Every structure is written in C-alpha cells, then in structure tokens.
Amino acid sequence: MYRSLIIKEREISTSLKFKCCWIGGARYSHPLDATSEKKFRHLKPLGELFIIGFSKNILPRQFTEHAHFYLMPQLPLSILRYAEMFILGTILTLWVIFRHKVQILVAQSPYEGVAAALAKMIARWFGRKVFLVIESHGDFEQSLFLQKQIRLASLYRFLMRYAANFTLNSADLLRSVSSVTARQLQQWKSDKPMVQFPAWTDIETFLSFGLTKNKYYSGKILYAGVLTYLKGVAHLVNAFASIAQDFPQTELMIIGREDDKAYATQLKAQVRKLGLESQVQFMPQLDQQTLAKYMSQASVFVLPSLSEGLGRVVIEAMATGVAAIASNVGGIPDLVQEGINGFLVPPGDEKALADRLRWMLEHPTEAKEMGRNARAFAEQFFSTETYIQGYQKIFEAAQELLNQ
Description:
By secondary structure, this protein is an alpha/beta fold. The protein has helices at residues 34-43, 78-100, 113-125, 143-147, 153-170, 179-188, 203-211, 233-241, 261-273, 288-297, 312-319, 350-362, 364-381, 384-402, and strands at 18-28, 47-55, 61-64, 68-72, 104-107, 131-136, 173-176, 194-196, 221-224, 252-255, 280-283, 300-303, 323-327, 342-345. It contains 14 helices and 14 strands. The model is unreliable at 1-15 (pLDDT under 50).
C-alpha cells in the first residue's frame, strides 16, 4: 500500500495564506470560462495563486482573474508545445519564484513537471526553498501511445521515462485523482507521501439540471469528450450500428472537440458508411451549462475509453441523473457500480457494449432507477468543499516542510 499523507481536517485559516503556482498544459481563455472562473474563485481564499499554461490561440496572454495567469502561445504541434513548456515554462516558473516569492509549485503531470523540477533545482542553488507537488490525472506511461501512432516509439518511451524519473525524484508530495493513478505513482515512488482527491468538477451545475430531469424516457445515447482514438468512439459507433435498426427512434449524440482532425473525419465517414446519418449527431464542444442540459435529457451516457485517469465526465453525467456505460479501465471502476448506477464493459468490446446499450433501451424503468442511483453517488463522491480541502492539506504539508 502507498503511504498516505494524513493531515488533521480543519477550516481554511484566514491568517495563513499561501503563494502557489500551477504549471500545466491546460488552455485558458480571457475572460475565463464559467467553469474555470468558479474553480479559481473557490481556490482564491487559500492565498495568492499563479497559473502557467497555454492560451487558446497563438497569442500569449497575461491577466488576473482570481489568479495571475501567464499563458504561453498555443503552437500547432505538440512537440513544439512541449519545448515551450520545458524552456519558457521553466523561465516563467523561476520568475514567479524570485519575483513573487512563490514557494509551492503544483505540476499537473510528471512531464509538465520537468519545468517545475528544473526551476526548483535552480532556485535551490540560490538558497530558495520550494515545495514541489506532482499530480497524475491519467496513465502517463501508456496513454500517449493509445492516442496516435508514434514514430520512434522506443525513443519516446526512453525520454518519457527519464523525464518522469527526474520529476518524481524531485517531488516532495504526489497527488492522484483515482485509485489507479495512485497505484501507478506508488509503483514509481513508494517512498513519497501522497494525497488523493478527484479533479475539479463543476458539480453544482450538473446537479441543478438533474433536479429538473425530464420524467419521460428519451432513448437518447450520449457521448461527451474529445474526439481521439484513446476515447474509443469508433467502437461506440459500431456497437450502436448493431442495434440501431431495432431502435429506429433512438439517437446517438457525440459531443466533443476534434483534437484529432483525422480521427474525427474517419468517425464521420464511418457513420456515413454504416448508413447512420439520421441517427447519429455530431456536436462541437459545449459550455458546461449546455452540456449539462443535454446530459439531463439523455437516457444513457457512454464513455468507451481505452484509458482513463478517472473519467470526470462520468461524474458529471451521473450528477444529472443519467446511468453510465463505461469501459472497465483506469479510475472508471471507482465511479461505475455494476448494475447499480451503470455497467462496465471491457475496452474495445463492441458486442458487450451493444448488449448493454440494448438492455438500457429495453428496460427504461430500471435505467431510470440506475440514473437516480447515479445522481446520489455523484452527490457524495465530489463536492467543491472536499476539493478545496484537498489543496488545503497539500499547502499545509508544504508549509510544515518549508518552515523546518
């Protein structure tokens, strides 16, 4: 078992303020979208917050909205963005350490953490103490290779392993979002203290739509997430095709950003080839309010991923009162209780997925009961208060070490 960090629960002290910088590949707009605005508004009482990430276009940005944002331009190729993070990200991190006296760094993956680890090392040369937290939101060893074909894969694996080792060795504390990410981190660094709590979810928005969930059974099947190979959407389309003729009124809605344009094009061609244009609808990424509305109108939510750290979108769907069918991978079994609030299927098993879809459509009464169970689970699994308390624990652990 990994060694958990145990810190006494207490209210956030108004007299104890922290200076913390998050470093990661997240993209932010200005002004912030409603979900990000709410997240940083709730984190703000912890202290002065700094964010190093990416803008949503080629232009760099600097602004303050609950936190100080330093956003690098979003270059078109991932390898260029990694170079940006390693070089410019390190420089920006050093700047907030020396200019703003930041002492707590939170890196949102072992790879983005290279910039933070380098900054910590350089700051130590100049006598500055820095506390480094490394987070894991997914399978940092395999997920990249499940998303796309990688040339020189052996070289990539070597470099990734070297980077992860460097970062995790530099960490003072680790944070996981699920039991599976905790196990992976423990396998790498069993001697490091660790805390576990889910990624941010705008749970109140989704719960509010669950209160007004329509009583009728719509028969709609919904997927929401980015369109990449890793998410297994092609398997969902094939599974739906095998039952579509038996349920001519049923519609499959695929909502998400086309992160992999070639894959998204293939999906649409797949739908046309299968003659499903009248039953499959593609929609772009939606804001949280609109997404919650669509989720609340669905009869079942499906996440057919090949790999997931937690599957936060499953919690969001459950909060609106919708049962879930999801792949038995990553942290998803932490969320989906077989036959109670949904079903688990083996990743890539189109027959098993089709069978569960058929069962949901043929048993609307039981499916609605599962949806009620799903909502009850979401209410107790995540709350804004526990999320803030999670970072409060981390910051207090940092304060303890920095004061030594």
